[in-house]
User: Fold these one by one.
Assistant:
Number 1:
Amino acid sequence: MSVDKPRSARKLVDRYKLPFPLLSDESREVVRRYGLVHAGGGPDGQDIPVPALLIIDTDGRIEWAHVARRVQDRVNPDMLLEHLRHRAPKERNESTVTGEAGSGGAVGQPPR
Amino acid sequence: MEAPSPNTSASPAAGQATARRGLRTAFVGLAIVLAGPLAYSFLLDIPAIHRTALPVWIASALGALVAMRSLGSQHRPAARVIAGMTLLAAVGVSGMFMVATRLPDVRGTARLETGEPAPEFTLPDQDETPVSLAELRKDQRVVLVFYRGHW
């Protein structure tokens, strides 16, 4: 999820062949609701999100969260996959999520 | 480079050569420091480089070392000035990087405690199709990534 327009999200999906959706929060409402606003952090001084990664379980509860302290902080994709594998979901169907996270480039190579 | 010998340093020609070498060393140090951010910007696509900004730290440290070395021996003032500038640049570049990459501390605002409910939302995806968190997490866990955007 970013505050980019769907059009630029489309470009990223095409370029990196992403198998998951890129959501667009242009109004910053969701970013604000999650408390992840980096005021004036964008290249033109616009508000953008603080990089963060959350695992949300099937009950809609936060299972795990990582919030970056520096611009370049990112979750190690191997650690993420490890976590997803070892903390099996309470219910069915883990494989889809793991597959998504593993095959895409968005976790390993965030645009910025 | 000529072999160092205790006798030659007394002659003016050898002294000049040493001074020239000192100046050259000082410039090399400065170039190394400035090459750090340049290398970083070229290597941004490598995740490990992007994450750690390693070229900046290595180049700053290396350049500063070279500058210290050229300050240590006797040289003409120009070399000292360059070496001083190099040290300032090394501190400045790495300091700027530390400040520029710092993000606001959102611990106060982010309600991301484990076990707490994640705020529900519906947002358009890349094709303007509305996607809701409730729909995504219905049968499987969801990895939700907030990223700074593409520019």
Number 2:
Amino acid sequence: MKILVAVKRVVDFNVKVRVKSDGSGIDIGNVKMSMNPFDEIAVEAAVRLKEAGIASEVIAVSCGPAQAQETLRTALAIGADRAILVESQDELQPLAVAKLLHALVKQEGPGLIIVGKQAIDDDSNQTGQMLAALGNMPQATFASTLSIADGEAIVAREIDGGQETLAVRLPAVITTDLRLNTPRYVTLPNIMKAKKKPLALSSPAQLGVDVAPRLAALKFSEPPARTAGIKVTDVATLVARLKNDAKVI
Amino acid sequence: MTALIIAEHDNRVLKAASLHAVTAALHCDTEVHILVAGQACAEVAHAAAALTGVSRVLLAQAPHLADGLAENIAAQVVALAPAYSYILATATAAGKNVLPRVAATLDVAQVSEITKVISADTFERPIYAGNVIATVKSSDRIKVISVRATAFAAATAGAGNGAEVVSIDAVADSGLSHFMARETTSSDRPELAGAKIIVSGGRGLASAENYEEMLAPLADKLHAALGASRAAVDAGYVPNDYQIGQTGKVVAPDLYIAVGISGAIQHLAGMKDSKVIVAINKDEEAPIFSVADYGIVGDLFELVPQLTTALG
């Protein structure tokens, strides 16, 4: 069974982004970029299934600018076998990415597709579910455990108030939550090996997908900043403040 | 124009989260219908019919709709979609699971976690962990929207508002997935999402035992819900669904007490709209103090029991 994992190049989670002064976009000119953390978990999950003898090949895919090749090299260093970059300089919204991935699923025929539940830049939480819909595949989102048996994936999902377990028929789409695994550290020898692994280039045009944005971004702004209040020195003062000033207890 | 809201429920009770989506839909200036898809869930439909502003409740019942499987619920929504201009759900785990499947099937974009309705086609939504607010315009004929609960007031049941409840045919079972088990944390405390007061713990608690010993008595005194930072969840102090933050739960209680939480931007994203924030942390440089109305620098193991006692 092949596994396809999708990875996105995003602003590193430690960076606090700034809106451009004219409100036309986000200033990401010189900030550190990384693989979306949930996608790292997806790659790790796929590689572990290969190491367990359940998967035969792990294909990492990214849709985005040429620099996303670096992100794919990281996926290869974690242990993916080969990579595909669907290169586009244009803004790719979740529906467009889902369509590109769907086109690749038709080409590659994976038994399982694993993606992060959410990209930490646009916080949409859509692509995996959309891909499942387009391929009429089942979905198991927000996965915290994953096993494969008898043509099904058994997945424990994080839900409000606890967790639930589903069985989904393969091929299926899994989206990862934080507790699915802890991605391994990428070692130097594996980074060197990753440089020799195949990385193919494709494009929306080659895949026959219209990626024109459906949502127009009119404006970006920063939310009103919350200002620091006061430091109190003891619990009695705190309780008095909460009772008399804030009136919340 | 009419909006369809996907009700969230457990076949017995309409979840409070859905009430916020009703308000958001009314801001879009539309008639509001609610879909209750489940099994033996007529009570939920009647609760939905009592909500002010709701004019019709669609009730679809079948065994394969009982457990909220995305494949079946989405198919049920898609079957109804042509009659609607808006499809909304609250951005809970359940709403986030189903809604994009609906949008992609309809070949429309989804607008995730809106915090404001600017006009019938233009919305505000937070991105980058809430550090940026994007204003987006949708030109799709059917607008598929998830709603951030904390940004819209809850709709209330109105005396005498009795919307019609219409039973509709359930879609066929997709057969693609099946439900196996659900374990929910049972607690006498309020739910995180709707709590007026939240006591939340982080890595500073140092163990599951300390978390319970320090925070449970305080939460009991305040009738508060318990939450946690990602660090506390990853360390196994508390279950996953306690996590507050960018990719966990977003809350906005009247009072948020952060105990031993440093305040990473991902955590702040989930709680900075709280009305009053209290931070207890031994590190006076901790970023949590930059958003706290009241901060105490000190040892939480001394301060928290003092606070619990002081509350009488």
